[in-house]
Amino acid sequence: MSVNRMLAVGAAAAIVLSLPFFGRTWNLFMHVLGAIVFMGNIVVSAAWMSLARRARHPEALRLGVRGLTITDAVFTLPGALLVVLNGGIIATPYFQARVGWVMVSLVLFLMSGLVWGVILVPAQKRLSALMTSMPPGGPIPDGADALVSRWFRWGGIATLLPLVSLVLMVVKPRIG
Question: How many domains, in total, are found in the chain?
Fold first, then answer.
């Protein structure tokens, strides 16, 4: 199955699972499940890419980039959609009351999505194209190291932001 098809299936599944007529308990469950899937995948992706990068073997890096592309389609996007859609449904009273920790959490999560969409996805696509064009057994293409470094730098930011959001969701501090 192509990555684009995986993206479409994952997004459609997340949307259907987030319909508001399943009830608050269901939406809370889907929100928490989305957070687990989303956070788990972005942390594990960093671990796998670290191992691939450290190996300094072209095939390891090619496999790491391919795995990153697939797991983003299967886990990151659907997890993020579950978090946002179900969180939006269950947080409506908090939004109306202008509860600070909900607002800050949402802004942090959206900032992470912005970094992911504007910087990380294009870097991953360029890196994937480089690694796909690499002949079997060939050296790591020029420019790949810079893209991997950029991916780690911005990926760290894109991971830290929702992690802080997650802490705020659990602790629920008084803000504002």
Answer: 1
pLDDT, tens digit, 9 for 90 and up, residues 23-73: 888 889 999 999 999 999 999 999 989 998 898 888 999 999 999 999 998
The owner of tokens 């978090």 is 83
Q: Is residue 176 part of a domain?
A: no
In the structure encoding, which two tokens stand for residue 131, read together?
């690694």
Write out the two tokens for 169.
């969701």
Residue 146 identity (one-letter amino acid): A
User: Are the CB atoms for 36 and 92 separated by under 8 Å?
Assistant: no
The alpha carbon dihedral of 139, 142, 144, 145 has a sign of positive
Q: How far is CA 136 from the centre of its chain?
A: 29
pTM of the entire predicted model: 0.85
